[in-house]
Structure formats: structure tokens, C-alpha cells
Design brief:
CATH class: Alpha Beta
Largest sheet: 8 strands, antiparallel
Oligomer: single chain
Number of strands: 11
Structural class: alpha+beta
CATH topology: Beta-lactamase
Order of helices and strands: EEEEHHHHHEEHHHEEEHEE
Number of helices: 9
Length: about 290
């Protein structure tokens, strides 16, 4: 199992094991750790969720701007520019911020606002957390269209919507199909045009797309999740820290990108830093 070791001085203080896969639309190419590991999708699937909302909105004769499409796909930092776009969705569809089930400043409020806009546009119930809501049926249909073979276990995510349980290879395969699907070109282009709306300051997914426009689509998720899709090669990395650690996930996925000779700028943390701004240690990829 690959491990990220966290050094303090010249001694190992902590270790974070992880599993990861490299997948194309055709097959599993490579794995680090357990490729069959079952994980929850968490926020990685927000671009897919955003497309489902957009489909409802457009079918009713309305639309979202590119910035609004991005915020619907985001796990934002609640920065001023990000909340401004959330508010623009609410304003365009005459929605009360109190309707957002996770709260206006929650990092999932962009996704929730887009779902509420879909409910308003399509005259659907605003009780969108219900698993029987048409939105969830449409999302399941979209996952099947992208290649999911069977209905996965699901339960409530941190924001109250459903999150799905599947193997890392299954999840990565959905993204590998997604990036070659013309239906997602607009979402991919929007995320690359406004990368700082996706996560925000110091977020690996935003910084990577900002450094390499239209080379990657990247998305982080809770509990140590990261997805990076290479738009040039058609390959996708999905990585999960076994202990759910947040601090080393950008370093871990960057280490795999370096192994694969993918373009990579210095947009990830490699060291631990104390309150005085001094480097106290480093992250190192190892194995056990």
C-alpha cells in the first residue's frame, strides 16, 4: 500500500495510506493499492450533478451562465466571488436563500442552488433532499448512461443529498467516459475558464486548472478524495486517503502525476510549516 509519510525534522511523525487508480474509458490501466476499494463519491460527482440540474433548467426554457454552471459543480470556500455567483442563481430564479438545505455559505450551496433552480424551472417540489424526488431519479439515469452497471448503495452526504458507494475503478470510469462525452464539453470548459470558483484560494483542483487551462478537469472531495482527469490523454486518476486526511491529498495525487509525467506546476504543499512560517518537515511518498 502506498503511504505518504509526514516528517518533523528528520523523523517520521505520521503516515497516511492511500489507494488510487488510473483508468481510461476502455479499462483500468494501473492501480496503487486496492483498485477494488469501495468508496463514497462525495463531492467528486458534482459536475455530473450539475449537468442533471442544467438538463432540467434547459428543458424548461431557461439557462445558467458559465459561472453559474461552475458554482453548481463546486466545493467552494465561501469566498466573496463564489457567494456572489450562488446569489445570482437565487436571484435569477426568485429563490429564498433559506431554501438551501445545507445553508447559504456551505461549500455545497452552489450545487443546491442549481438544484433549486431546476425545481423552480421545471415546477418540481422544492423538497429536493427526498430520495424519491425526480432529480435523484434523473441523476441515477445519468450515472447509468455514463456506464454504471448496477444500482449502488447510497446514503446522506454531508450536505444532505445522496452520496453513492462504488469501487474506485467504477467511479474513475464514469469520469473517463464523461470527459469524452460532448454533453459535458460546456461544463469542462466553464470549470477551466473560472477555476477559482471550483474550490478557491489554495485549493489544488482550482490551482491545477488555472495553471493548465483545458489540460485537466480536477475535483476534490471530503474524506481525502481527489479526481484529476487528463483531457489530453483521456486518463483519470481517482485517489482516496484511507484515513480521510485532507492535508496530504494534493501531495499524494501530485506524486502520481509526476510518476505519469503529466504536466504539474508547484500548486501543492510539500512541507509542514509552523506558526512562525518555518518549514518543520516534509511529505514523502513511500510504501509498506
Amino acid at each position: 500500500m502506498p503511504v505518504i509519510q509526514v516528517y518533523r525534522g528528520d523523523k517520521v511523525e505520521s503516515e497516511h495510506g492511500f489507494d488510487a487508480v488510473l483508468v481510461s474509458a476502455a479499462a483500468l490501466i494501473r492501480s496503487w493499492g486496492d483498485a477494488s476499494r469501495q468508496i463514497f463519491t462525495r463531492s467528486l460527482i458534482k459536475p455530473i450533478q450539475a449537468k442533471v440540474s442544467l438538463d432540467f433548467i434547459r428543458a424548461a426554457g431557461f439557462n445558467l451562465s458559465p459561472e453559474q454552471i461552475v458554482i453548481a459543480s463546486s466545493s467552494h470556500n465561501a469566498e466573496t466571488d463564489q457567494l456572489k455567483v450562488v446569489n445570482s442563481i437565487l436571484d435569477d430564479f426568485s429563490l429564498d436563500p433559506a431554501l438551501i438545505a445545507c445553508g447559504h455559505s456551505h461549500n455545497c450551496s452552489g450545487k443546491h442552488s442549481a438544484i433549486l433552480a431546476a425545481c423552480s424551472a421545471a415546477s418540481l417540489s422544492r423538497e429536493y433532499l427526498s430520495i424519491e424526488h425526480p432529480y435523484h431519479h434523473a441523476l441515477a439515469a445519468e450515472l447509468y448512461r455514463l456506464g454504471l452497471k448496477q444500482e449502488p448503495y447510497s446514503c446522506s452526504d454531508g450536505c444532505g443529498l445522496q452520496t453513492y458507494h462504488m469501487t474506485m475503478t467504477e467511479l474513475a470510469s464514469l469520469f473517463a467516459v464523461m470527459i469524452s462525452d460532448p454533453a459535458y464539453i460546456e461544463i469542462i470548459e466553464a470549470m477551466n475558464s473560472y477555476p477559482l470558483l471550483v474550490g478557491g484560494a489554495r485549493q489544488f483542483d482550482s490551482l491545477l486548472m488555472q495553471a493548465y487551462p483545458m489540460t485537466y478537469i480536477a475535483k476534490g472531495g471530503a474524506e481525502g478524495l481527489m479526481m484529476v482527469a487528463n483531457l489530453k490523454t483521456g486518463e483519470v486518476i481517482v485517489l482516496k486517503l484511507r484515513d480521510g486526511a485532507k492535508r496530504v491529498k494534493s501531495y499524494a495525487v501530485a506524486a502520481l502525476m509526476r510518476e505519469l509525467d503529466w504536466d504539474l506546476a508547484d500548486v501543492y504543499e510539500t512541507s509542514t510549516i509552523n506558526a512562525q512560517g518555518l518549514i518543520t518537515g516534509a511529505y514523502v511518498l513511500a510504501s509498506c
